[in-house]
Design a protein that fits this description.
263 residues, mainly alpha, 0% strand, globular
């Protein structure tokens, strides 16, 4: 573990140096993500300018859910964004073969090969959203609540990573599963809003099949009493661990089935 921590630090330092060499590109990337998220929030605000609540949820409660989703997603985007490129950047051109002969876990190498600058914009806007929403909610905040919020956000990020890893692994059989990964990832947009506004079938799907519900709604429900999901929300860290174990197990199975493209 210590060896991989040192290795990742060396990879990260190298990536940061590259980012700082192109500071304008770095700042544009961060700003563009923030602008994109701001546009989405502005749309929600426009809707709430005409109504007071959506199925019992106020603007700031939805903003709180949105903030947890954005912050959790930033963990995935900063540190694990390279999973998107597994098919077209590693398997198709044969670069994965190079990683397999190195004395390093190939999944670690794929992940460490990139530090995505746009994720920092996601993190900043997520924290701004949470900082805006929390003072407007009638919640009591102490050390325990803050610690739980951190746990929920980390769990959210791990679930994003696990789902992305699971579907990226299909690249071992399909060469490039990017269309599937992209289609599944788009479902996470549903999780930015209270699941209770959706049909029961969608709620079940986003809870038990593709568990994006645990990336935002259930973590937020722990803090919002009226949600009725406070106790169920405590399963969020467990869901994150189970998702990661399943995804990594599937990755190992895909790796065993991998046959070089020979390009």
């Amino acid at each position: 573990m210590r060896r991989y921590t040192r290795l990742y630090w060396e990879f990260a330092k190298s990536h940061m140096k590259v980012m700082m060499e192109y500071r304008i590109d770095f700042l544009i990337g961060v700003a563009s993500v923030m602008l994109e998220q701001f546009a989405s929030i502005f749309f929600v605000k426009v809707v709430f300018d005409h109504i007071e609540q959506i199925n019992g949820w106020s603007f700031y409660e939805i903003l709180f859910i949105y903030g947890i989703a954005a912050t959790g997603r930033s963990i995935h985007q900063i540190f694990f964004d390279n999973l998107w490129t597994l098919g077209w950047q590693y398997i198709r051109p044969g670069k994965l073969d190079r990683l397999l002969i190195r004395p390093v876990n190939p999944l670690f190498h794929v992940v460490a090969d990139r530090l995505h600058q746009d994720g920092f914009g996601q993190l900043i806007i997520g924290l701004i959203i949470l900082g805006t929403a929390i003072p407007q909610l009638d919640l009591v905040w102490g050390a325990a609540e803050i610690a739980m919020l951190v746990v929920m956000i980390i769990s959210s990020g791990l679930i994003f990573v696990a789902i992305n890893l699971f579907f990226a692994t299909f690249s071992f059989w399909m060469i490039d599963s990017l269309p599937i990964v992209w289609a599944v990832f788009n479902l996470s947009d549903f999780a930015r809003y209270p699941l209770t506004i959706y049909h029961k079938g969608i709620r079940m799907f986003l809870t038990w099949i593709i568990p994006y519900g645990f990336t935002a709604f259930y973590p937020a429900a722990y803090f919002i009493d009226k949600s009725g999901y406070k106790e169920f929300a405590l399963w969020t860290p467990v869901a994150a661990i189970v998702c990661c174990v399943l995804a990594y197990t599937f990755w190992n199975r895909g790796l065993k089935a991998f046959a070089s493209t020979g390009s």
